[in-house]
Specification:
Radius of gyration: 13 Å
Strand content: over 45%
Number of helices: 0
Distance between the termini: 40 Å
Length: 115
C-alpha cells in the first residue's frame, strides 16, 4: 500500500521559512517524479514544484522555494523561504510514475503565513 505522509507545515510570519517533508512508502521511490501542489481556500489545487533528475517550479515561487529529494530515505522536501501571505494553503505531495499513469497523493499539510 502506497503512503505519502507530509509534515513540516505550520504558522509563520511573512518573510519566514518552513521546510516541508514528504515520506513515501510502498513504491519504488526512484521511479517516481515527486511534486508539491497547494490549494488555498476557495481556489483550485495548483502545481508548485516537481523533481525528477531536474526541477521545475511555478513562476511565483522561483527563487524562494527549493525542491529536493533523498532517494535513500524515500523523502522529498520543499524548502520555502521568504514566505508571503499568498503562499498560505494546504500543501500536498504527489508521486507521478516516470512510466505509467497511476499517481498518489498525500493527505496535505497546512501552511499559514501571517502578514
Amino acid at each position: 500500500q502506497v503512503q505519502l505522509v507530509e509534515s513540516g507545515g505550520g504558522l509563520v510570519q511573512a518573510g519566514g521559512s518552513l521546510r516541508l517533508s514528504c515520506a513515501a512508502s510502498g513504491l519504488t521511490f526512484s521511479s517516481y517524479a515527486m511534486g508539491w501542489f497547494r490549494q488555498a481556500p476557495g481556489k483550485e489545487r495548483e502545481f508548485v514544484a516537481e523533481i525528477t533528475g531536474s526541477t521545475r517550479y511555478i513562476d511565483s515561487v522561483k527563487g524562494r522555494f527549493t525542491i529536493s529529494r533523498d532517494n535513500a530515505k524515500n523523502t522529498v522536501f520543499l524548502q520555502m523561504n521568504s514566505l508571503k501571505p499568498e503562499d498560505t494553503a494546504v500543501y500536498y505531495c504527489k508521486a507521478r510514475p516516470l512510466v505509467g499513469i497511476r499517481t498518489y497523493w498525500g493527505q496535505g499539510t497546512q501552511v499559514t503565513v501571517s502578514s
